[in-house]
Sequence to fold (335 residues):
Amino acid sequence: MKRLLSSLINVCLVVSLGFVLSGCVTTRLPIASSSPWAEIQLETEANPLDLSFIDAEHGFLVGTNRLILETTDAGKTWEERKLELPEGENFRLISIDFEGEEGWIAGQPGLVLHTSDSGSNWTRLLLGDQLPGDPFLIASIGADSAELATTAGAVYRTTDAGANWEARVNDAEGGVRDLRRGPDGSFVSVSSLGNFFATLDPGENAWAPHQRASSKRVQSMGFQPGGDLWMLSQGAEIRLNDQPGDVESWRKPIIPITNGYNYLDLAWDSQGFIWAAGGNGTLLVSNDGGDTWEVDPVGDIQPTNLLRVIFDNRTENQPKGFVLGERGHLLRWAG
Fold:
């Protein structure tokens, strides 16, 4: 009897110790009391990949499986549009950008489209057979002008509506897994293996390679509002540049959730709050520069991976924000 009682006491001690120790590791953040996001129902199973607006109300969204949707009410509702593309090819529309009525779409394989009438008509541009890599990102930079970056790190510029393209860099950097362009024309790319990143400053004609901040492979990188860099690494790590203007100086890693899903994108809203999106409906927000985080309750119930967070603050009195998820999931900023 004494032996049985002793065994029961030991079991209770082990269980109690387990509960105590489990409280020492934060695996779940507090859930915010409200959310600025509203779920939008898209009639598609394709993955939304990018969107851009012509004015406060009119915009387009593109994605996998030739997906192109149009909105005329600031993203509350979306209607499917058709592009005149060969039926036998399953195009992945990966990037779109408008400046006024002029817009551009970059897609894979080997696709660039141009419009000068707010998307009513699109013209396919011939890129030739010598383009290194596939189109990855396109940005409108003025009348009849755009910059095109590829999966090989090549960057080209046109000033005649796509009739001719001039190489901006002498040599392609190699395969990239992520590539972003800043408002000033800077680029940052992540190598296909995630083992280093490279930057391309305005006016430069060669990529400058840089070592990653730790041994963990880099998922994606981009630009903070002030022009400094952010980095997302495997292991659900977030890093921000430590010294302004120094792309190789990094703060200590921010790890909001221990053993959490990897983050796929990072963005700042018009109030300066940081939003992190990732696998399995991960959508976190920080209102103090990354020191503390909360779980967004609307993002938390999304049964999908959240791929992108996009804010358009060009119209100050009507800022726009969207979270793009797999299989047609879309969240719209409701404020």
In short: Residues 1-26 have pLDDT under 50 and may be disordered. The longest strand covers residues 92-99.
